[in-house]
Amino acid sequence: MTLASSTLNVEIGPRSVGIARRWVADACLNIGRADLADCARLGVSELVTNALVHGEPPITVAVRGTVEHPRIEVIDGSPRPPIVPTTSDDLSTGGRGLSIVAKCSTAWGADVENSRKIVWFEPASEVSPHVEPPYSLTLNAAPVVATESSDLIPVRILGADATTCYSLLRHYRELRRELRLLSLTHAEDYPLAKRLSDLIIAFEQEFPQTAITQLEDALESGQASLDIEVEASPALVGLIPQMLEVLDLADAFSRAQQFLALARTHHQNSYSHWFLGEFSRQADGEAPRTWADAAALYAQDSQSAS
pTM for this one? Predict the structure, then answer.
């Protein structure tokens, strides 16, 4: 029997996840599928959390489908596809929530349109600790108009340390998540969080994802170092100084125990300034400088200062 569609508008706030959990559980009971309530609660809590942290309003939860195969959807106003888990690394911060969704589903996926995305799942009767159904992605969005190739700036990051790059990528994702949560739930206590979160989103939209792909490929093949070659937009280059300030400011908050994310180490700090600084240097026409050369200069500056 086909279900009449029912929806819940999700408000931005710390109680939204709990409200969504109770709502989908009641929806399962109302259609006589109490056996699906536990997995429905678990899955929707992860998807609503993702929508609050990584998506954009308006956010809606819907129950559609049939009594035999009810489908729970979480819709938000961002057309960016969700990060699908590709590794079993428990320390990875990307996609862990979706891994939980997969384990409590018989089917799941996302439909991406121009101005929104729908992440959906069909709840199972029990959580599966091992077997996960395949992820289904449908792209209905019109192609994004790319920056003119003549405006892009070729950038070569030579001698990048793969382990340090990965540790900083994890740090960035943890920081992005924390700032987003603070801006949503404690805006009055942390008025700066919203501005910093918006800056990080703008930076991420401009940063070439091919750099992350090259890093992941290097890690998978066991490379200790790699040369990253990308093309950067002028907008990204303009955001670099602000992004470095955000990272330094976040370190200060972390040391003052105002952030859960740990501050970067001295090595990670220097590496961040070299890595991102290469975009600005090369945009100004300077030749690429390897991490080894930059590290030697940083060491000399440190000795001179002492």
Answer: 0.61
